[in-house]
Write a structure and sequence with these properties.
Oligomer: single chain
Strand content: 25-35%
Strand order of the largest sheet: 6-7-4-3-8-9
Number of helices: 2
Helix content: 10-25%
CATH architecture of the largest domain: Alpha-Beta Complex
Order of helices and strands: HEEEEEEEEHE
CATH class of the largest domain: Alpha Beta
Number of domains: 2
């Protein structure tokens, strides 16, 4: 009887965890929002995760002050492996974790409808809603959690505080029919659901230095 109760308790806990994860996928407003790349399920589980790299930082490394809000506030370069067959566009999000509660997502960048032929975002992408130049022709940027369009660099509060930042790339089987003049991060996340072929991310740390 004890074994049955124990097994039942474990099963119930597993169901509860699954339900909580599913709720996080549906809502994307609570929980560890900075792990979004692992929370939106891909349409086809066989697709390998995207390998994401950067010319301006290493995975698990340190982000330079020039990419921080109180530094140069410029976006770093981000590159990724080409998506699987059927990829129509890419979306890139950059998110950190709130230093106030330790788990809520703080959104720093939302860029979508990146052409399927493009696998690199250059350094210092302009903070314009409609990106019509070069390889980013047709790409669009939505508002972050602060209501600003384009990249908003890290600003992790107290001097000396270190926070991880996620640069997440999603290969989509469609283009998102969203107006960047009104769309925000949540609108992009909702529109991506049921269209993600695969995803990947790179994580970098930023430390708020004295005087910054």
């Amino acid at each position: 009887m004890k074994n049955f109760i124990s097994r039942s308790a474990v099963s119930f806990a597993a169901v509860a965890l699954f339900a909580a994860a599913a709720y996080g996928q549906a809502d994307n407003a609570g929980g560890d929002g900075a792990m979004l790349a692992t929370k939106i399920p891909a349409l086809h589980g066989a697709a390998a995760p995207l390998r994401v790299t950067s010319s301006d930082f290493t995975s698990g490394g340190k982000l330079d002050d020039k990419y921080a809000f109180n530094g140069g506030n410029m976006s770093p370069g981000v590159s990724w492996a080409r998506g699987p067959a059927g990829t129509q566009s890419y979306a890139v999000l950059s998110e950190g974790v709130s230093f106030e509660d330790g788990h809520s997502a703080v959104v720093h960048w939302v860029i979508y409808n990146i052409p399927s032929s493009t696998t690199t975002l250059p350094q210092h992408v302009p903070n314009d809603p409609h990106l019509k130049t070069g390889a980013l022709n047709g790409a669009e940027q939505a508002k972050t959690g602060r209501g600003l369009v384009g990249y908003v660099g890290p600003r992790p509060g107290a001097v000396g505080r270190t926070v991880p930042y996620h640069f997440e790339v999603f290969a989509l089987d469609t283009h998102l029919d969203l107006d960047p003049d009104t769309a925000d991060r949540q609108a992009v996340v909702n529109a991506m659901k049921n269209h993600v072929l695969t995803s990947g991310e790179i994580v970098v740390n930023y430390t708020n230095h004295a005087g910054k």
